[in-house]
Amino acid sequence: MRTTLNLNDDLVRQAKQRAAAEDRTLTSVIEDALRRLLTIDTTRGQEPYRVPVDTGPRGVRPGIDIDDPRAIRDLLDEEDVEHFLRVQRETARRATP
After folding, report:
1. Are 26 and 19 in contact (CB under 8 A)?
2. What is the pLDDT of residue 21?
3. pLDDT at position 59, please?
4. Residue 64 and residue 72 in contact, taking contact as beta carbons nearer than 8 Å
5. Which secondary-structure segment (H or E) carries 91?
6. Rounded to two decimals, what is the model's pTM?
7. Would you kindly state where each structural domain of the chain is located, as residue ranges?
8. What pLDDT was estimated at residue 15?
9. Burial group, residue 72, by CB count within 10 angstroms (0-12, 13-18, 19+)
10. pLDDT band at 52 (very low <50, low <70, confident <90, very high)
11. Phi/psi at 83 (nearest 5 deg)?
12. pLDDT of amino acid 66
């Protein structure tokens, strides 16, 4: 099949050099390059990234749905409050003579 393409001059120069170095035609070099491009797996990266979760002894706390941002936010808020209260108790204990 014959077709006309407008290609970057530098790209054509490089392809011609490759063809000459490999004793091939420019057409065969371009065909190979196009075949390689078309066989690349384009489905990669299209699905949302899923964070791997370790469900072992140190995994996700039971009852926490990691797919629910509100549940994670609530858990973090809970941990912040627990930490704050623990620090307050520790500070009060140190301040008592």
Report:
1. yes
2. 96
3. 66
4. yes
5. helix 69-95
6. 0.43
7. 9-39, 64-97
8. 95
9. middle
10. confident
11. -65, -45
12. 79
Q: Which is more confident, 17 or 74?
A: 17
Long-range pairs of 31-39 with CB within 8 A, sequence gap ≥ 24: none
Q: Which two tokens stand for residue 75?
A: 């858990």
Exposure letters 27-59 (e unless 16+ CB within 10 A, then b): eebbeeeeeeeeeeeeeeeeeeeeeeeeeeeee
| Whole-number pLDDT of residue 20 | 96
Separation in Å, CA 55 to CA 12, 68, 75, 76: 54, 17, 17, 19
Residue type, 61: R
Cα-Cα-Cα-Cα dihedral sign, residues 57, 63, 69, 72: negative
For residue 23 the two structure tokens come to 């004793």
Tally of CB atoms within 10 A around 22: 11
- Mean pLDDT over residues 29-48, rounded? 82
